[in-house]
Specification:
Elements lengths: L2 H33 L5 H44 L6 E3 L6 E2 L3 E2 H22 L7 H21 L3 E3 L10 H22 L11 H24 L3 H24 L13 H16 L1
Helix pairs in contact: 1-2, 1-6, 2-3, 2-5, 2-6, 3-4, 3-6, 3-7, 4-5, 4-6, 4-7, 6-7
Length: 286
């Protein structure tokens, strides 16, 4: 019984941390609007918190596996993009926070990929109540919706500039197609790997399942506020119009679905989860 209060206290720590991170994200938007000063530290802080959530949900091995996939897929695609224009279109970094790897891509972009990649994957998984490879394109869509809010603001802030013909507030449509493809690939690889991670924690704290979609929402609101204020109405409405319902669906599922119907770990294969529930039911009857 001693572990129960400890877990409850830890849950409260995560909840308070989420409130603090959300406040920093929304304050960053206000600071940028009032002073024209960007606050990249808000994204770094949110990513650090998300990694802490990931460690509790997936353990060290699962977290490091995801970080490795981020390096191998989206972060590597940034170098390809800067050098060749594939898959996003031709662009160049200007004043994005450093340091830069090989003088080409800032580490800050790697941090942002961890943030949006995990938030998309975890939120859609919670919304469905189960991980499946079929969710990978949905993750790609959710992440692209987030980028619809971010990219025009980043271009205006001169973090980077597009050399390809721009079609939406200074951003080419090829960028959003590239985002969809890259995050879909990241999600498929991540889900496949996590389903086979025997070292993952057997239980998933319900508090973390609730918090992670909230971080996606506050991040989207941070850039949505900026995007609307700068007059990027189309990308704002599309981005928020996708992110908010997905977050709402995740929270609704958590609120309405009985706890026992959630698998101990949402990323375990469905057959294993069904077998675990069947064994638990047999133990209860016994």
């Amino acid at each position: 019984m001693e572990g129960v209060p400890n877990r409850s206290r830890l849950d409260r720590v995560y909840v308070f941390a989420f409130v603090g991170v959300g406040a920093v994200q929304l304050s960053a938007a206000i600071i940028q609007l009032t002073t024209s000063t960007t606050v990249p530290g808000a994204t770094v802080l949110a990513t650090a918190f998300v990694v802490a959530c990931m460690l509790r949900t997936h353990g060290l091995s699962g977290t490091m596996s995801f970080v490795g996939l981020v390096i191998a897929i989206p972060f590597a695609s940034e170098f390809l993009g800067v050098l060749t224009g594939v898959p996003y279109g031709a662009y160049a970094y200007l004043q994005a926070p450093g340091p830069y790897v090989l003088g080409l891509v800032p580490v800050f972009i790697f941090v942002a990929w961890i943030l949006v990649g995990y938030l998309a994957i975890a939120t859609t998984t919670t919304a469905l109540g189960r991980s499946t490879l079929w969710l990978a394109p949905v993750d790609g869509l959710v992440a692209t919706a987030w980028d619809l809010l971010v990219d025009p603001v980043a271009v205006r802030s001169q973090f980077w500039t597009w050399l390809s013909p721009a079609t939406l507030y200074g951003v080419p449509l090829s960028n959003f197609l590239g985002w969809f493809l890259i995050v879909t690939g990241l999600s498929a690889a991540t889900r496949w790997l996590w389903a086979r991670d025997v070292r993952a924690p057997p239980q998933m704290p319900r508090s973390i399942l609730t918090i992670v979609p909230g971080v996606l929402l506050t991040s989207a609101l941070q850039f949505g506020i900026l995007s609307m204020a700068y007059g990027f109405y189309v990308s704002s409405l599309i981005g928020l119009g996708i992110v908010i319902p997905v977050v709402g669906l995740a929270w609704r599922r958590l609120a309405t679905m009985p706890r026992e119907l959630f698998a101990p770990n949402l990323w375990t294969p469905a057959t294993a989860a069904a077998r675990a529930r069947r064994i638990a039911q047999e133990d209860d009857r016994a």
